[in-house]
Amino acid sequence: MGxxxxxxxxxxxxxxxxxxxxxxxxGSRPEPAHAPVFxxxxxxxxxxxxxxxLNAYLSYMDKSGITVxxxxxxxxxxxxxxxxxxxxxxxxxxxxxxxRAYELAKLNVExxxxxxxxxxxxxxxxxxxxxxxxxxxxxxxxxxPFGSPQPFIENSLRAIxxxxxxxxxxxxxxxxAGKYPLKCIRRYGALPRKFPFRLEVGIRILIYxxxxxxxxxxxxxxxxxxxxxxxxxxxxxxxxKDRAYAIETLRSLGYAYYSPGTLSRGFIQGFPIPSxxxxxxxxxxxIDYPWDAEFVVNYMMREVRDYFSERARExxxxxxxxxxxxxxxxxxxxxxxxxxxREVSINEVINIIRxxxxxxxxxxxxxxxxxTDADLLRVRDVVKQLLRLK
Length: 390
Ligand SMILES: C[S@@+](CC[C@H](N)C(=O)[O-])C[C@H]1O[C@@H](n2cnc3c(N)ncnc32)[C@H](O)[C@@H]1O
Fold this sequence. Notes:
This protein is of the alpha/beta class. The protein folds into two domains: 6-294, 3-Layer(aba) Sandwich (Rossmann fold), CATH 3.40.50; 330-390, N2,N2-dimethylguanosine tRNA methyltransferase, C-terminal domain (Phenylalanyl-tRNA Synthetase, Chain B, domain 1). Helix content is 38%, strand content 25%. It is built from 14 helices and 17 strands. α1 packs across α11 (310-322) and α5 (150-159) packs across α8. The protein is globular. The mean pLDDT is 96. The structure holds S-adenosylmethionine. S-adenosylmethionine binds at residues 38-39, 43, 47, 71-75, 77-78, 96-98, 101, 124-125, 144-146.
């Protein structure tokens, strides 16, 4: 196995060997992408929540004895955690194109005594997915690439069985959320806009991108959970290999609109061509709920473990709260507190809105963001009046 500095780390319930990141830095900051095999300790949040999501999916769908495919495995940590921490996994296919990653993942599987459950391959991810599809499919595909998951979505949908789970990570948040609109159009076939809720536009374009491939194959999708954590989006959807469900999915596609003058925002149905609108539009994108509140509240939360990092547990609680909010794009406190002359805190704004008899929930997408069914111009007036009286 390649000769480079390595260390042992504990994550979740497993112990693995990874490159010694203190030797791969930019300035004084560890840079996982510079190491011979990729391991980002910050992605523990993504991996831990994915363990909870897969455990929850198994009870939600009443399944066991499932096959998992993780075709971009790096050190194998994620595949190994699924094998060790998810109850009801019989087989895990791990894979990486890199020789060093393949060697390290094999070592890590062996060290954790999981040779009977996890098989490691060295191949291109798309080859592995197509092979799995030919061999009858798997129940769960996890796509965790560098950057965009786009090159792997189509074959993931082929590899997944009916009612299987597909989770994808996207680290190209900048592209999806409007920093490079033309790149987003090329990569995802959708126009992002720099609306105040652009981080939500981005994740909805990502769900749309999965739906688009699914629809072409006469499949439908249903998001169980979607979230953002710092530099990446994570989306998990159930895939229904059923034409009736594809027709249903089509109804969940459309555009987001926003009007700076009235602060109004929302979604309009229509794909690929929306009805005429007086607003600026962004999309096509997913306009239905990006999560299933029942799944998040009654299934996922039960699977969040004490041994997950504090950040993973905190994010899960935020998602639990937010999944109960109305399906309206979030608003920023700065939008309703303009002209007040001082920064109004998110808690103040939420209390004001609730005092008016409307619902308001914080969003995990932005520290100043909240979701509400209230008329935002009225909220802005009330915020102004109340704060002037103070
Ligand atoms: C972000 S890392 C994976 C991290 C890992 N899933 C985890 O949770 O730690 C992406 C991995 O994909 C591998 N990779 C890139 N292109 C690939 C391809 N076409 N087929 C298979 N593996 C690929 C890289 O070598 C790298 O190890």
